[in-house]
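Possible regression after last week's pipeline update?

I re-ran a chain I had predicted before the update to compare outputs. Posting the input and the new output here so someone can diff against the archived version. Not blocking, just want to make sure nothing changed silently.
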Amino acid sequence: MTERASRRGSARIAHQFAALLLLLGIGVFGVAFIAAATFENAEAQGTSAGESDKSGALSRDQWLNKNVNAYADRLYQNGGTLDEWMKLVQYYGVLGKNEKALQALAHAKEDLKDDRQAVRRLNRFARMVGLKPRE
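New output (post-update):
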């Protein structure tokens, strides 16, 4: 892989990481600080965007996936609010996992089935982010 391609990959991961932090409710300044510290640390260690270091620490991709999966598990087991389900769908979208986003959307509709307005909002939200919700 060329250095330019590696930078493009790192930039893509940085964008996804920053978007996820924003979705988690960390402010713009917090995102900038955390992202800068994370990427400076990765460069100092000589790791690229998707690799874990020799000590077995999680890579950024692994860390993001682990946290999103934990969030999803909590919602699937306990249910959640409309906003929580929308965040999960959006997290999966940021990570490029459209099938999981659709699965989360289906679970959200089942969880919120007694609230017709919430289901309509979920469908609008799904279309807005480019998903075709299953009716």
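Follow-up from reviewer: compared with the archived run. The CA atoms of residues 17 and 35 lie 7 Å apart. Marking as no regression found.
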